[in-house]
Amino acid sequence: PLEPKQKPRTHHAPYKPRQPKGIQDKNLPRTSAHTTQPVKRVNLTLQDWLTVFSYIDEHPGISQDAIVQHFKTIPNGALIFDQSTLSRKLRDRHKLEARTHEYPNALSSKRVHVVTCPAIDHSLFLWIKHMEGKGEQVTGAMLLAKRAKFEEKFNIPEDERLKGDG
């Protein structure tokens, strides 16, 4: 017979209620800024990169290493990234700035979201806003079902419909 590798628990830790998060304005774009040093690297939002770009514009001739150090040491809202990431983002700066004009909601995103059918994407966006207005929680399964209904309503050919839960 197999014996358990751990002893059974005789007592449980006391319940700790969740601490409320700081009040955030839901109309502002999200940020990846930290008040303390994060344990691991995090991806910055598009809004964060635009903040970095505006700092670079205000300080012409500053080295990329100095930029990285500046943002790493901001007491309230440190942005953690390395020089190679900054170099890559500067190379794609025009694409990132163009994305903000095309998709205003992209400011809170960390990655590019590929939209195959803008009409369905917009319809899902409006539906989510409607559900949030009613105080309803939207789940992944609900999104999949609604996407399928919108694809049918907009007469999207079967071979162009999205498969899976992406």
TrEMBL record:
Compositionally biased spans, kind Basic residues: 7-19
Domain of life of the organism encoding this protein: Eukaryota
Span list, region Disordered: 1-36
Protein known as: HTH CENPB-type domain-containing protein
Species of provenance: Pisolithus microcarpus 441
